[in-house]
Amino acid sequence: MSVDLQTVKRVARLARIAVSEEDAERMTGELNAILGFVEQLNEVDMSGVEPMTSVTPMEMKKRQDVVADGSKAADIVANAPATEENFFLVPKVVE
User: Is the Cβ–Cβ distance between 24 and 7 less than 8 Å?
Assistant: First the structure.
């Protein structure tokens, strides 16, 4: 895949980036180099390779997926001006 000057200008306009004519020409070469590298990466045989989270083998730290209130309701409402049964009390706005 190759990018031309018109495509660079269109992408810049879609991204709302002001690009001068000489910057657009420079970016054309840079984007083509990036796309060339991506095409090289696509040629690598990845069959049999499992995804990694790190370069060193390790188990991911996982917590139990449970529904809980966090046991901090009293701490959360401690600085509120008015509370009742761990709920914030606010003045009535609409009558």
Answer: no
3-state secondary structure of 84: strand
Coil, helix or strand for 83?
Answer: strand
Interval 58-90: pLDDT, tens: 887 888 888 887 788 889 899 999 999 989 999
Q: How far apart are CA 53 and CA 62, in angstroms?
A: 13
- Cβ–Cβ < 8 Å for 8, 24: yes
Nearest Cα to Cα of residue 27 among 6, 1, 2, 8? 8
Any idea which residue has 């696509």 for tokens? Answer: 42
Contacts of 19 (CB under 8 A, 6+ apart): 8, 9, 12, 27
